[in-house]
Amino acid sequence: MKADSALPTVPIFGIRVSKADMKTTVSYLTEAVHKREPHQVITANPIMVMAALENPSYMEIMKSAELVVPDGTGVVWAAEYCQEPVAERVAGFDLLHELLHQGESYNWRVYLLGSTPEVIRETASRLQTRYPGIVIAGYHDGYFGPAEDEHIVGGILEAKPDLLFVARGADSQEPWIAKYKARLQIPVMMGVGGSFDVISGKSRRAPVAFQKLRAEWLYRLLKEPTRYKRMLALPKFAVKVVREKDKVTKEQ
Asked: pTM of the entire structure?
């Protein structure tokens, strides 16, 4: 089931982004778990949209995902600027926690994939403590190559999770999920970027003041100046939206 068959969406340069708020999104994915309908959930930001515009194979992954939520504030702004506003920003970090909270009522099984061995162990431990009603069915660090994919996929299938969270960076986690989602058949498969680093305590999420100002990207840049090259996609995205306002939300 495609997201746009159940949730209202707006196309942003051809990528259908959900207009639904967090509560509706969680309800929708809860239904997906109950029906055992596989969903790749992508938490879209401007950097990912720009990458898709430059890379046809990445664009195909974005377009074929069952649900794309507006994670980046730039995506929220673009929809609003083009007079097709989304209900609110649906941040991947918050969606992860909302799904785990919801999963406590149903004893959902969760598999965690990505980051370092130390971070993934601590993340699994903290999440099990915080959400005792869920089952951490398994976890594995993100330090593996294509040759080990079969082993990783086999381990995930054996764990029979309801939710799979993958933290390997947007350039690799989305393609990896897309490649194996048909075999995995997990109701919710979502890339979560650096979420495990925050959950484990290795790094901090942007303070609330930055979140309210829609400036988490600025906080990350201040903390990690080496990210500036990636961040150049943000002004490029904004300029492209302004210049092509009439085309942004057109079907492509």
From this structure: 0.89
